[in-house]
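Allow me, if you will, to draw on your knowledge of protein folds for a short while. I have a record of one protein: its chain in single-letter code and its fold written as discrete structure tokens. Could you please explain, in whatever detail you think fit, how the structure tokens follow from the sequence? The record follows directly beneath this note:
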Amino acid sequence: MKKLYTILTLVASLSLSSLTTAFGGQWIGDASGWKYQKDDASFHTNGWQWIDGKYYYFTPEGYCLMNTTTPDGYTVDASGAWTVNGVVQVNKDTGSFAYNVFQIVNQERAEKNISALAWDDGLAACAQARAYEIQETFSHTRPDGSSFFTILAESGVSYTSCGENIASGQKTPEAVMTAWMNSPGHRENILQSDFGRMGVGCAYIDGIYYWVQLFAN
């Protein structure tokens, strides 16, 4: 089932642990557990990382949590991979999908003679985190009961106004953009001339894509 939801909020203030994809590197084990050494010889620490298409949680000391529940409430199996109902969650090239949505947004704005939005890495990290949150609670209210924009304050992303579009079920960037553009509220956010930057998140969970756009100025 496909879902859409939109909100435009004016707030004054600001910023999440970002989602990072790891390229290269190697796993290194010792008596205390397993670490992932990056190409620059440093180690992943303090939170989640995509590695070889799977999602792992690392402690401040750099060890991968395994066969437990992470501090933010997610389950990881004996290999350390994030699971939902026993199924390992994989990255389905969601990064390129997210950027494709951004490109289509600017195509739509160009057709209406509206200035292009700039890609914002901070907003993108927040949107990616929100894509996982809406799988749990499909709403502009976060699973902890706070409004969506609180994730910006947590991440240090400054803004004077912001907006969010969410959707689920569409399998391609083109499909989700068509759905949003056919919905007046979502379309308003996409074509809002006051916004100057955006980030997009896309998550693939249990065979379903979840999409989030975050806009700000």
